[in-house]
Each structure stands twice: as structure tokens, then as C-alpha cells.
Amino acid sequence: MTGRSEVQALLLLISESAMQALHEYEKHGEALPSLYKDHLHLLDKGHTPILLKKAIRNLEGACDQLCSTLAPPLHTIVNVPQDYYWSCLRVAAHKKIADIIDGSSSGMDIMSLVTETGIEQTKLTVIMRTLAARHCFHEVAHGIYINTRLSLMLHSRNSHTDFIDLLTTEGQQTAGHFQEYLDNVEYGQSHDTTHTTFTYSVKESGFQGTVYDWMKANVMRRSMPSMNTVMGSLSIIKVFPWNRVHTVCDVGCGNGSFVWPLIQEFPNLHVSLFDLPETLEVARHVSIHHDALCLSQELQNQLHFQSGNFFDDPLPKSLDIYYFRNVIHNWPDHSVLSILKSVREVMGDQARVLIHEYTMHSLQQSQPGAHIEGSLDEAPWPLLPDFGYGKMRLHNQDLTMLFMYNARERTVEELQALSNQAGLTLNKIWDLGETTVLEFIIANS
Prior knowledge:
This protein is of the alpha/beta class. Helix content is 46%, strand content 12%. The strands form three sheets. It has a seven-stranded mixed β-sheet. The chain has a three-stranded antiparallel β-sheet with strand order 1-3-2. The protein has a two-stranded parallel sheet with strand order 9-10. Helix 1 packs antiparallel against helix 2, helix 4 crosses helix 8 and helix 8 crosses helix 13.
């Protein structure tokens, strides 16, 4: 194939994917607003439909591959390490610039922003024009800025600033130490959770322990709701047949952010929430006192809270579903095998395990066994089999797991192999556009 034929195919894919995305917006309440409007579409505020995620996956993959094909290679390579956009996002989030501008109907001039933020004029000008070049804020006249659909994601009412803070502080700080970490004999060769890139990056501060110890007092726990929104974690509520089951255990439930919409959508379910005692207490408090939930007393009676550590304590016995979201990828193989074996010990004959997280696509085309229902989506030609940049957040998350936990995201085949050792077998795959749900059942003797 020639470069011209690839370019033509990519242009067609871009056009088709863009039209599919437009259709998704239009069938959910209203036409797509301009990027430079300061109000959000319904889909900007929460759950992203699976079909929209899949259209954007194709669109981002094709746009990136088109630019990489047509631009001189050095142009593309240099753009990546020279991209400091993230540092400006951090400033805008910390200084609440979107909140400040939101109070002005016609925009806010740079000197007023200087007064409100305390940032020196020249420096703030560079920050604002960098953000505006990527459509985060819009310069409507010289030095006068308004919000856009992107900048509104930094507004305090949207509760995403903790996630931005995590990615642009601990995330970037850790990544900056990656090369020297790999060269360090003690740390770079270790798979221990106390010897990660993150713990290496903060060791001079006197911190000792794992990222789990650090999480207890820092921003990561507060950032998880935003991460779940980005991942589309609630999509599984729409595609899995929850009406056919009666009991569910959310293993590693966190603050219960998955359970609340699940039990409201399927009020006949009885749900057990399993996590460490201090985390479970947060979930219990949210279930009772969070105004936005409004769980009836009847629904609250169908919640069962069981504290424990899944390495040491037994899980609730003989439930229909054992659901793991963003748990398995935190751990090395030997720990994952221990978790899966502990689940297998309490499962009834018809029970199922659902593992919901990012799943690595092979860069070569592959298909699961014939006995398995469903598969990972295949990328259209000429995209890479894993959709290339269209799944870049998957690769970024893979690096995040390495940096923070000495762990990784796994392929379907790797999870199959671990589950087989635990006496489980893969039964079904749901590709949700960004994340994947793998269903496991007890293996035949």
C-alpha cells in the first residue's frame, strides 16, 4: 500500500467517525454546541455512551496517524517532549480561572485575571494563550478571555480539579524520574510495591511505604470519581444483564460510586460492599448522608457492608456476581493469582467474576478461543490493531500502573492464564470502547 492510499483511507475514516459522533450528541437531547460556547451538552456532564466512545476512538486514532504520516518525522517527535500544556492546566485548576471568568458575561481581561489570581501579567499572558491555543479558554478580543466547553471542566463545580492535580503533579513528577529510576540498581530491577518509580521520586522527602500509604492522606482517593467518569465505568450497568442476578459483591468498592447507580437502576439487587475498614466507613457514610443519592430506606436495607483485606479475609460466600473494577491491575501476577483463588473458594457453581478495567490490545490481530462469547473490537484499516492513539489513555494508564504500583494493564490472554491457574475460565468479553469487562466462570474439572 502507498502513503496516498493510507491517507485517503484515514480521511474517509475521520469523516465517518465524526458523523457518528455528531449523531450520538444529537440523539441525546440537543445539537452539539460550538466548542467556544460556555455551556455544556448533556453528554459533557457525565456518562458517555459506548457508541460515542467508539467513534472518538476511531477519530483520535485516525487524526493522529494522518498527522504522523504527513508531517516530517522530527516535527512529530519533537512535539511530544516539548508539550507543556499540562503545566498550564495545573495552574488554571489551582487558581480557579474558569470560576473567575464564569462571573463575567462578556469575558475577563488579563489585568482583572492578574488581580484575581496574583500571577504576574507576562507569565499569566503566556499561560492563557497556551491554553487558548488548545481551545481551553477562548480569546474573544486582545487579552479578553471567555470559558469554553473544555475550560468548564476545570470549574470547581465539576469536581475534576483533584484528578487534574494528581496527573499534573505526582504523575509528571514521577515520570520525570523514570530514566534514572530504571538505571538505579536497587529500584530499577525491583517489582516490589515499595520500590516503584513513584516511591523513588519521593524518597528524598523521607516518605517510606507504598503508594497505598500515600493515598490515605493525599489527592488520589479524591480523584477517583473523575477517573471513573473518564473511563466510562458505569457503562457496564447498561450492557450486563443485572436483571438476571440477585446478589452482587463489589470487591474493592471504594466509596461505593458504582453501587449507588447500580442499585437505583436495579432495585431488586442485594449488594455487598467489600473493602478495608476505613474505606468502607466512607462508603457507609455516603450511602446515608449524600444528598444527591437519596437512597430509600428499602434500598439501604439491601446494602451489606463487609470490611476486610482480600489477601487475608474471606469474601462473602455464594453470591451471583463478584465485581472487580480497577483492582486487578494494581497488583503483580502472584498477588492477582492470590485474589482470584480467594474468590474461587467462595463461589457457587453458577457464580461469575467480572473484571472491569483497561485491557491491553495486542499490536497484532488476535481472537479469543471459539468457546468465548464476544471479543475486543478490531480497528478498521489502516489503524493499528489496538487503535493507536485512539487508545492512548490505555497506554498512559499502563505506564501509570508501572510508575505507581510496579504493576501493569494486562492482555486478555494474560488474564486468561492467571484465571486458569485459579480454577476459572474466561466466558465472555464486553468491549465498552475504553474499558473492557471480562466474565469468568468456574472451570470444568
